[in-house]
Amino acid sequence: MVEYRIDRRSGVATYLQIVQQTKQALRLGLLQPGDKLPTAKEVVAATAINPNTVLKAYRELEREGLVEPRPGLGTFVRRSLARPEAAVDSPLRAELAAWTDRARAAGLDREDVAALIASVLDERFDAGPTAAGTDLNGENG
């Protein structure tokens, strides 16, 4: 089951944090079709947020076709966003973990790494298919 972590200083609306974290769990294969999301009451107990905020997030996920409410039973995952290349045990994740270890060893903190990754993502994904087709060493794959 997913455990939500709310960052009140992030500037991101709380319901969007729940939506984003659920999508991340779906992409990583941590949530599968048929899995039950925590109840609003469970999320409220763990995060001290308003139950309406949880329900708003779940409605957004439902609108996107990712979850479905089952009256009296809870909210369940309808479909996955997982790709094998992004799985927790994938070679790409292992390479990224090794790179992150090198970045930390070089003295970068979490925010430095996040900024660096965000800038590369922006550069590579906004540049089109040529840049997006390169591997972690900058070579075409």
Describe this structure in words.
This protein has 141 residues and is mainly α. The protein has six helices and two strands. It has helices at residues 14-27, 40-47, 51-63, 91-105, 110-126, 129-132; strands spanning 67-70, 74-77. It has a two-stranded antiparallel sheet. A hairpin with a 3-residue loop joins strand 1 (67-70) and strand 2 (74-77). The longest helix has 17 residues, at 110-126. The chain starts with 13 loop residues before the first helix and ends in a 9-residue tail after the last helix. Residues 131-141 have low confidence and may be disordered.
Total number of beta strands: 2
The helix tally amounts to: 6
- CA(first)-CA(last) distance: 36 Å
Q: Rough shape?
A: globular
